[in-house]
Every structure is written in structure tokens, then in C-alpha cells.
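User: Sequence recovery, please. Input:
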């Protein structure tokens, strides 16, 4: 099972201040829409998403079907396949992908310390 590209999604209070901070440690703008309150920053293979007013907690994010440059992979574990494997392992879900569909879908689980883990497939 390959969970896909990894990033951390940070719930920030001031996206402009956070952007300036992470730029000082070498991150550059990679995607997003600052005017809509979200931005993706990259440094090498490290990705940080900044999200103002969209969610309460920081989220660990996996993107099945993408590499660390948000480029599509030819072969990948579909989010519904990952979900089935995690269910079989006894993981509890906060939200689930519809297993009767294909294409984009997502689900959320919580780690033992209450950190949300989002699996978000865009293709």
C-alpha cells in the first residue's frame, strides 16, 4: 500500500505571516490561492500547505496518485483500496470515501494522539 505524496496542512491564523516565515527557511510558493486563504509551499521534496480559516487542527495529508511534485503517477494505490486495507486493520474512520465510485475521493482517520490524517486523491 502506497499512501502517496506526503505533506503537512497547517491551520494558520495569518497566512501572510506564515508564508513570510516559511519563505525565510527556504520554502517557495508551489500552488494555491493566497486570496482564497490557502497556499502550498515547497522546499526540495518537503511540502507544507497553509490554510487560513478552513479547519481547526493541523492535518497530515497523503495524496494517492501524485508524486511530491503533484505530478500524476502511472501506478498507485487508489484511495478506496487504501481505505479497505485500513478498515481490515481495524482503523476507525472520521469520514469515508464512497467505495462504489472511482476518481477523486478522500477519507480521514485519526492517529492515536488525535491528529487528523487525510487521504485525498485528486484523480
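Assistant: Recovered sequence (123 residues):
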Amino acid at each position: 500500500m502506497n499512501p502517496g505524496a506526503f505533506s503537512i496542512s497547517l491551520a494558520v491564523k495569518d497566512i501572510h505571516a506564515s508564508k513570510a516565515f516559511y519563505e525565510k527557511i527556504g520554502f517557495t510558493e508551489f500552488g494555491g490561492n493566497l486570496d482564497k486563504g490557502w497556499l502550498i509551499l515547497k522546499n526540495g521534496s518537503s511540502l507544507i500547505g497553509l490554510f487560513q480559516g478552513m479547519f481547526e487542527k493541523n492535518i497530515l495529508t497523503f495524496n494517492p496518485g501524485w508524486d511530491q511534485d503533484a505530478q500524476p503517477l502511472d501506478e498507485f494505490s487508489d484511495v478506496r483500496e487504501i481505505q479497505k486495507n485500513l478498515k481490515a486493520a481495524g482503523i476507525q474512520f472520521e469520514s469515508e470515501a464512497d467505495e462504489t465510485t472511482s476518481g477523486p475521493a478522500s477519507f480521514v482517520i485519526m492517529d492515536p494522539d488525535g491528529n487528523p490524517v487525510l487521504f485525498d486523491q485528486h484523480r
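Strands lie at 5-12, 28-33, 38-43, 46-52, 59-63, 93-95, 105-110, 116-121.
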